Structures are given as structure tokens and as C-alpha cells.
Target: ATP-binding protein
Amino acid sequence: MFNSISSQASKLINLTTRRKRNVDSKTKLITITSGKGGVGKSTFTANIAFLLAQRGLKIAVLDADIGLANMQVLFDIKPKYTFFDYIDGNKSINDVISQTSYENISLLAGKSGYQYSNHSNSFVFTRVVEDIISLNKFDILLVDTGAGLNDFVKEFLSISDNIIALTTTDPSALTDVYSLIKMLSIDKDKLMLCFNHTKNYKIGETIANSLVNLAKKNRLNQDFMVEYIGNVSTSANISTTGRLRKLFTKEFLDDDSTKQLQDVINYLLKNIY
Ligand SMILES: Nc1ncnc2c1ncn2[C@@H]1O[C@H](COP(=O)(O)OP(=O)(O)O)[C@@H](O)[C@H]1O
Ligand SMILES: [Mg+2]
Model:
């Protein structure tokens, strides 16, 4: 009992220091999560990184999916180190930041199958994020979390100011997103919601509204906002370019999905802090 209380306390202290310490950094943190796996989170993250970088912003991507770390595949690079080499104290933070072949995009590669329980009370992931932000080198840090609401994902969510949940309209994906809304509504201000595999902007908006209504009905925190930020269609080009280890937003500028992602970027640039 004592342990769990003191670990809660240390978490609070840790979060407070993060905010204070990084007040001077230009780096904004966006965390991408989903609840359900396989909804397109990593593809979404890699491609918004590309579109943001194209607008002249310096982007770092942290592959925080310990279930399936595949960001290096999407960017088609073979990084020498993962950010766990930094956690383990073998490498400096700069050593584990790899430049991708895309201008303005750096990657902190992850590792599948990591035993989080070894670190579950030590906030090492909070510190990795803090340290990247403290470098003051990047305009935006994108964190791609794994699926589910395990302690590892929760730690990343707890330190994030801007959280995007990507979902499909599939009932099981929506159930998972609702659980996420319930959890975040306790101590966050808002969640940005984006629909993948969704052809029509209106459909996403309608479903987002029904989630908000359900939250009201269940009397979740009234100050918590769910903001609908857009939709991405299913596109054969996305799966093809993924297999070829290329980014569809680079290869297919006129694809509907690329245009929809540009709209999402426009929203983000106006609304993240
Ligand atoms: N809008 C889309 N249209 C077609 N295929 C997609 C789309 N979004 C993702 N995919 C494909 O779905 C698969 C899973 O995507 P991925 O980004 O790895 O999901 P997650 O990171 O959520 O597990 C990949 O093969 C990817 O190319
Ligand atoms: Mg993924």
C-alpha cells in the first residue's frame, strides 16, 4: 500500500517538473494512440510526420510500440540503436536519434517485446520524452504508442498534452476508443479523434458526436472535450506503398487520403500546444 501511494506521489512530482523544465523548449508533443491494434496508427504517424516535415518543421518520431515496433520499416531505415539503448545507459540521447532519408524527419526506433514490468515504477519513458524535448531541436515530437491501455501506454498518455486517438468505425475499435475517452476524461482536457478507413468526413463526425453523447449520458467529466479532427479513406495505394516501404503521402500527392491528411495537419497546426 505504502509503495503504491508513494509511486503515485512521485508521478505527480515528475509531471510537474516536466512542465516546468520544458517551458523553454519549442518542441510540441503529440501522442498517437488507438485502443485497438491494426487500425493504421503507425502508417498515420509516419505520414503525418512527412507532411509536417514538408511544411518545414523538424520532426522526431518515437516508436513506442513494444508490441510491434515497425517505424523503421515504414521509413525504410536500419537504425543502429533503439531508444532502449539510451534507457539502458549504453548510449547518449543523440546516439539513438537516427536521421531518416526524409528531410527533417528523425527516428528514435523502438524494440518489440520489451519487458515493461522491469521499469514500471521508474518513469524511464517519461524521462526519454523529457530529454528529447529538452534538446530543443525539434518542432514536434510524435509518439506512436502501441495498442491497448497497458501501463506502458498509460505512462506515455499521462505526460502528453496533445493526444490523437485513431480509430475505425468498427464496433470493437469504437468500444476501445470509448474506454480511452473514459480514462482520459479523469485528468485530461481533451482528446483529438481521427477516423481511418472512413470515406466520408460526415460519417466520422456523426460517430464522434455519438461518442460525445454517450459520454454525457454516462456523466463523464463535462469539461473534457472530444474533438473530431478528420477522416482518412481506405486506399489501395496506402497498403501498396506500405509494402514497398514508401510513404503514400510522398508518392500519391493527389490521393484522397493524402488530401484528407493535409486537412488533419491544418487542424493540428492550429490546435496543438
Ligand atoms: N487508410 C488505409 N487504407 C488502406 N490500408 C491502410 C490504411 N491505413 C492503414 N492501412 C494498412 O493497414 C495495415 C496496418 O496499419 P498499421 O499502421 O501498421 O496499423 P497499427 O500501427 O495501428 O497497428 C498496414 O498494412 C497499412 O498499410
Ligand atoms: Mg503500429
About this structure: The chain has one domain: 2-271. The radius of gyration is 18 Å. DSSP finds eleven helices and eight strands in the chain. Residues 1-21 have pLDDT under 50 and may be disordered.
